[in-house]
Specification:
mainly alpha; 217 residues; single chain
């Protein structure tokens, strides 16, 4: 009887140990998924591309995502400015618009400021790589523009045909540009993820949960 009881006790202990490990793994998986989701949102926001120009007087060019809202917000945290002074940057960054809704201790403000500056560094390095890759595409687009412009000047094509040609050039390179953008979204993710992991640690469970809900809205 005692032998059976001992065996049952051991089996029960093993069962609860396995259950606890599964719960721990499940929680860690949930945390990793949340971090990956936020990382993806931020990477998509940072790596944006807008083709500019492409007419009779303006060559093709491109513009990346808006100014570094992270740096501006970091400076405002350092100067202890009030929420009204944040209004000029919250529309440019989902992260900033969500952070501004939370209350932080002075220690948290200092740590968040450093993390935002790290994120700005990720952004700058990503832009440098992106610009290098975009040069070839823009050069090819511009060559086609100049060919059509020459025909327009020689009156070989009409202005309407020229404008249609500009649209066709954009459409031709649309897939290549989007593929390149997606490539650089993946490139920047590891750098952004490190910052997101650290940010979660600084915020704590309650504020992280609030931030995550806001970012997912």
């Amino acid at each position: 009887m005692k032998k059976h009881l001992k065996s049952w006790t051991i089996l029960t202990g093993i069962f609860f140990l396995i259950l606890a490990c599964q719960e721990k793994d499940g929680l860690q998986s949930k945390i990793n998924q949340e971090i990956d989701n936020i990382t993806g949102i931020l990477a998509e926001e940072i790596i944006s591309l807008e083709i500019q120009g492409g007419d009779e007087t303006k060559p093709f060019g491109f513009r990346t995502s808006p100014e570094q809202a992270e740096v501006e917000f970091a400076k405002q945290l350092e100067s202890h400015s009030n929420s009204h002074e944040h209004e000029s940057i919250i529309e440019r960054s989902k992260l900033i618009s969500c952070l501004i809704r939370l209350d932080f201790t002075e220690t948290q403000k200092r740590e968040i400021r450093l993390l935002l500056l790290n994120m700005a560094q990720c952004r700058m390095e990503a832009f440098q790589l992106l610009r290098k890759d975009m040069v070839e595409i823009i050069a090819a687009m511009e060559k086609r523009r100049l060919d059509l412009l020459e025909k327009l000047m020689k009156q070989e094509i009409s202005r309407e045909q020229f404008h249609q040609g500009m649209l066709a050039i954009r459409e031709t390179f649309k897939t290549s540009i989007e593929d390149l953008r997606k490539k650089h979204v993946e490139i920047i993710k590891p750098c952004i993820r490190e910052t997101v992991v650290d940010l979660k640690g600084v915020l704590g469970e309650e504020k992280w949960s609030q931030l995550y809900s806001c970012m997912k809205d």
